[in-house]
């Protein structure tokens, strides 16, 4: 069954600010019952990046921590 990611304005704004890219867009799929199925899709000017929540180190009680972890996985 397909999973549909929704636009994430918070993640898009954070990643645009950190990278300086105005073309970057971020989408997320969150499965509240199965975190391992949750993921981000980051679209840049020349690629699409899929990052599952399992690849990110973050504080589960803090959404900002998740977005910062996404940045670290892709850019550091």
Q: Can you describe what's shown?
A:
The chain has helices spanning 9-19, 63-75; strands spanning 6-7, 25-29, 39-43, 48-52. The protein has 76 residues and is an alpha+beta fold. A four-stranded antiparallel beta sheet has the order 1-2-3-4, covered by helices on one side. A hairpin with a 4-residue loop joins strand 3 (39-43) and strand 4 (48-52). The model has no long low-confidence stretch (mean pLDDT 94).
From the structure above, extract its key features:
single chain; alpha+beta; globular; 4 strands; 22% strand
* Major beta sheet, strand line-up: 1-2-3-4
Radius of gyration, in Å, reads 12 Å
Percentage of β-strand residues: 15-25%
Taking all residues together, what is the mean pLDDT?
94
Structural class of the helices, strands and pairings?
alpha+beta
Q: Give the proportion of residues in helices.
A: 25-40%
Distance between the amino and carboxyl termini: 33 Å
Unreliable stretches, pLDDT < 50, 5 or more residues? none
Q: What pattern of helices and strands is seen along the backbone?
A: EHEEEH
Number of helices: 2
- The number of distinct β-strands equals 4
Q: What would you call the shape?
A: globular
Biggest beta-sheet profile: 4 strands, antiparallel
